[in-house]
């Protein structure tokens, strides 16, 4: 086959991905081999490929391809997450654009729209991952809303409920007014911002006096049910038992005393709004205060807002502040910097809200997961420093709010009947629920009441938190919840490596570990590789709003998938943020071209059945040992999940040692053939190079692999055998570093003295290092040395350089134009002497020395020393020529 002069990534990538798919190389079934399993962190079903996905999935593909080459049964399970909040928001926006209000639809009608949206836009990201070269087992693709996946979620809910770990409670929760749902504590991001602090006077009832409170949210004044002071605060001792009149609404509320109030903070007088602050709620519970919720679910004011009803909370804040000012009770305002809870998904400011929600008790469940990571190290985090973050979260874990006021998701399997708070049953189906409800009712009131039917039961309208489905992911993708003893879960579980971002260490990773020990009494994975965030060169997080996130598919089109993969991983140490620079992708593309051109060079050689030169024999022997040394380093880096170091080791080996040195060492003379033995060896070496590069550059390597010779699918590179690690001769490798330094020394002299490479020269060596003379043939070939001899003392009248303690001499006679060299050195000497004179003139100037900064004077002294050293060298060179 004729090899194209240029590597065409787009043509090659489509060809080989189709080839891999056609021959089912990505698919796995349980067999006698050792399994190696990765489950993909499921991206949002409506998502598109961004730089974080590119990095994360490239790393996973590197690991899975390496395992496949190692002969393991590699299984990489792909899939997507239904992403309740994000997807429902997109469906609602689409409906709104069509003039449809979500609230006018039944649950079934809305879900039809959601499924239509998912079928139209869902899975785009998985198709994009194919462009990156991801070798997922696409036949196993899962979606967290698949029937079997949903059934597993419901089974787990019922099981945990029956164990007494799930309960319903009226609690203060985080409310997202844009998504109109609760969020767990972990889904709230605390953003620092500056707001106004309003100082407001409250009239004391039956008194001419006032108390002053400070608040950032004057709209919540309408929900105040008390004013609170510290019982130790003497300033307010006279107010014990008195009441104040809440401004605008004129509600009379008590002045209470509680240790919670900080005497030193603000005015020392606190307004209590139990419905809108978690701390106020706790104080309200202690003092039996009324709870008044002033907000609707979209954060507009309800009827308690009086004449401000219907206004958005921010608009109401401005209007009420103005009203307070007009009433002459707004004392002052000042700026305050504080942290405000915002929704991770919608970025809306969170409202604390009292609500009936479902919770999962976590403290007891978390104990095995804490032990697994922090004590037994059954699950290892890379980098290990994340153990501290894990410990903090898990040891301070709170009950998980698992209900969401959404339609898109698994509907909570709780059914209500009757009028009482306890009139609820939890069941997989309405039929089971009816049976349970009748049993419960019968036990409660005897058999006098009529039997309940399905019409008497109402299912809870809420859906489960999306994370409540994805925490089962490593088990549910193998049907391990519904059928806990099936062949696949027993073979593939626990999985091997999980690759994800540290931002979901608690959301997802920790919860999967919890679920694994609860449902299989076993870890879900052995190792967790935590990648950093992809940032731009200015260290900013990549985002659409900043416009600093390149189009992933455009990068692949411009630099090839291999180039982008190499570019991403060249600077991606575990857990450290990646400062993405498009030049890195260009570097990756350049590396691909370098390998391609090296292969074209080798394939262009004519092969003859002639004797192998000594220089080729020793060079090939060196590279075999160098390869094994690099392979040992690579395996060590893999074991520590330092994938950028793996790539850099392979990159240097192939670019420097293979392309720049080995090919030069064995390259035949112009228009001369290469010996058959050397050619066969170089091809075998090339194949090994391709194997270690394949996980990083799958397309280029597979292309060259099949150009080397025709191969059947069973012999494709993707399923070939990874190189075996053997012993290597460190002394030989060290000696060759000396050989390289000698050759570089010769080349430097040639360049400086304009001695063309075609002109052979003599080389004499004072061999203080006792370097073996077996390397002479390599030195002679690469330096075009006509005669290499060992001398016992320095050679006069020769050009010289040193390597370690060895001295090398190139006789001038015949090598250079002596007169021209004398003239050149004389001019350089004259210039340097003039430069030295000017520097010394400055240093003799006392005014300069005394007044100039120390570093400036020191710099001049260094110039003087350098000039003196150069003059000495130039004079020595001139003397050797005369």
Protein model, in words:
With 882 residues, this protein is of the alpha/beta class. The protein folds into six domains: 9-158 and 467-535, Rossmann fold (3-Layer(aba) Sandwich); 196-337, Isoleucyl-tRNA Synthetase, domain 2 (Alpha-Beta Complex), CATH 3.90.740.10; 414-459; 570-728, Isoleucyl-tRNA Synthetase, Domain 1, CATH 1.10.730; 732-816, 2-Layer Sandwich (hypothetical protein PF0899 fold); 820-881, Helix Hairpins (Orthogonal Bundle), CATH 1.10.287. It is 44% helix and 17% strand. It contains 26 helices and 31 strands. The strands form ten sheets. Strands 7, 8, 9, 10, 11, 12 and 13 form a seven-stranded mixed beta sheet that branches. The chain is globular and about 115 Å long.
């Amino acid at each position: 086959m004729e090899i194209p002069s240029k590597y065409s990534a787009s043509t090659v990538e489509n060809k080989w991905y189709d080839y891999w798919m056609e021959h089912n190389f990505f698919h796995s079934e349980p067999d006698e081999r050792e399994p190696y399993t990765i489950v993909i962190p499921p991206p949002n079903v409506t998502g598109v490929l961004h730089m974080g996905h590119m990095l994360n999935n490239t790393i996973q593909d590197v690991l899975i391809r390496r395992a496949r080459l190692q002969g393991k049964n590699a299984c990489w399970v792909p899939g997507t997450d239904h992403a309740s909040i994000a997807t429902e928001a997109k469906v609602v926006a689409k409906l709104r654009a069509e003039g449809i209000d979500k609230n006018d639809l039944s649950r079934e009608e809305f879900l039809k729209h959601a499924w239509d949206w998912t079928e139209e836009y869902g899975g785009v990201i998985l198709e994009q991952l194919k462009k990156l070269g991801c070798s997922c087992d696409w036949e196993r693709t899962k979606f967290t809303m698949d029937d079997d996946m949903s059934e597993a979620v419901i089974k787990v809910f019922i099981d945990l409920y029956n164990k007494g770990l799930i309960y319903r409670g009226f609690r203060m929760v985080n409310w997202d007014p844009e998504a109109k749902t609760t969020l767990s504590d972990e889904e709230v991001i605390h953003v620092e911002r500056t707001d106004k602090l309003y100082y407001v006077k409250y009239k004391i009832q039956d008194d001419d006096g006032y108390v002053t409170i400070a608040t950032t949210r004057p709209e919540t004044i309408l929900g105040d049910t008390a004013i609170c002071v510290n019982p130790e605060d003497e300033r307010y001792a006279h107010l014990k038992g008195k009441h104040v009149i809440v401004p605008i609404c004129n509600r009379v509320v008590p002045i209470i005393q509680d240790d919670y109030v900080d005497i030193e903070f603000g005015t020392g007088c606190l307004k209590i709004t139990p419905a809108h602050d978690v701390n106020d709620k706790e104080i309200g519970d202690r003092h039996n205060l009324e709870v008044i919720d002033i907000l609707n679910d979209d954060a507009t004011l309800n009827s308690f807002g009086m004449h401000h009803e219907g206004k958005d909370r921010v608009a109401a804040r401005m209007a009420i502040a103005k009203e307070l000012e007009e009433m002459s009770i707004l004392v002052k305002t000042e700026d305050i910097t504080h942290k405000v809870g915002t929704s991770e998904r919608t970025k809306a400011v969170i409202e604390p809200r009292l609500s009936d929600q479902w919770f999962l008790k976590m403290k007891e469940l978390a104990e095995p997961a804490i032990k697994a990571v922090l004590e037994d190290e059954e699950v290892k985090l890379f980098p290990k420093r994340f153990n501290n973050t894990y410990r903090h979260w898990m040891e301070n874990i709170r009950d998980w709010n698992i209900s969401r006021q959404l339609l898109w998701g698994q509907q909570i399997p709780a059914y209500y009947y009757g009028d009482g708070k306890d009139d609820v049953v939890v069941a997989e189906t309405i039929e089971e629920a009816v049976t349970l409800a009748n049993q419960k009712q019968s036990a409660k009131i005897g058999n006098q009441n009529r039997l309940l039917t399905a019409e008497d039961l109402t299912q809870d309208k809420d859906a489960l938190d999306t994370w409540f489905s994805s925490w089962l992911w490593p088990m549910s993708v193998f049907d391990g919840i519904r059928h806990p003893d099936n062949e696949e879960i027993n073979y593939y579980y626990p999985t091997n490596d999980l690759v994800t971002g540290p931002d979901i260490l608690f959301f997802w990773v920790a919860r999967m570990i919890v679920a694994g020990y609860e449902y299989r009494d076993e870890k879900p994975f052995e190792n967790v590789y935590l990648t950093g965030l992809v940032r731009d060169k200015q260290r900013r997080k990549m985002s659409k709003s900043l416009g600093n996130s390149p189009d992933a598919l455009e990068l692949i089109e411009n630099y090839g998938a291999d180039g982008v993969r190499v570019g991403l991983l060249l600077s991606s140490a575990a857990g450290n943020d990646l400062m993405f620079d498009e030049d890195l992708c260009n570097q990756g593309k350049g590396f691909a071209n370098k390998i391609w051109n090296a292969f074209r060079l080798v394939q262009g050689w004519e092969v003859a059945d002639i004797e192998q030169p000594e220089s080729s024999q020793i060079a090939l022997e060196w590279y075999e040992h160098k390869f094994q040394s690099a392979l040992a380093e690579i395996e060590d880096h893999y074991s520590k999940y330092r994938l950028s170091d793996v790539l850099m080791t392979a990159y240097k080996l192939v670019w420097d040692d293979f392309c720049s040195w080995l090919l030069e060492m064995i390259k035949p003379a112009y228009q001369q053939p290469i010996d058959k033995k050397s050619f066969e060896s170089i091809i075998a070496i090339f194949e090994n190079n391709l194997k270690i590069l394949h996980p990083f550059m799958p397309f280029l390597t597979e292309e060259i692999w099949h150009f080397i010779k025709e191969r059947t699918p069973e012999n494709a590179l993707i399923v070939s055998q990874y190189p075996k690690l053997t012993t290597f001769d460190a002394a030989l490798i060290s000696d060759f570093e000396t050989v390289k330094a000698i050759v570089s020394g010769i080349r430097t002299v040639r360049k400086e003295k304009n001695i063309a490479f075609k002109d052979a020269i003599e080389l004499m060596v004072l061999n203080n290092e006792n370097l073996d003379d077996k390397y002479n043939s390599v030195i002679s070939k690469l330096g075009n040395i006509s005669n290499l001899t060992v001398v016992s003392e320095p050679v006069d009248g020769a050009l010289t350089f040193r390597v370690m303690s060895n001295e090398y001499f190139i006789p001038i006679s015949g090598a250079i134009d002596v007169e021209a060299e004398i003239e050149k050195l004389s001019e350089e000497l004259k210039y340097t002497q003039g430069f030295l004179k000017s520097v010394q003139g400055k240093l003799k100037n006392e005014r300069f020395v005394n007044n100039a900064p120390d570093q400036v004077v020191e710099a001049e002294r260094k110039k003087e020393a350098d000039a003196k050293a150069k003059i000495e060298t130039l004079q020595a060179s001139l003397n050797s020529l005369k």
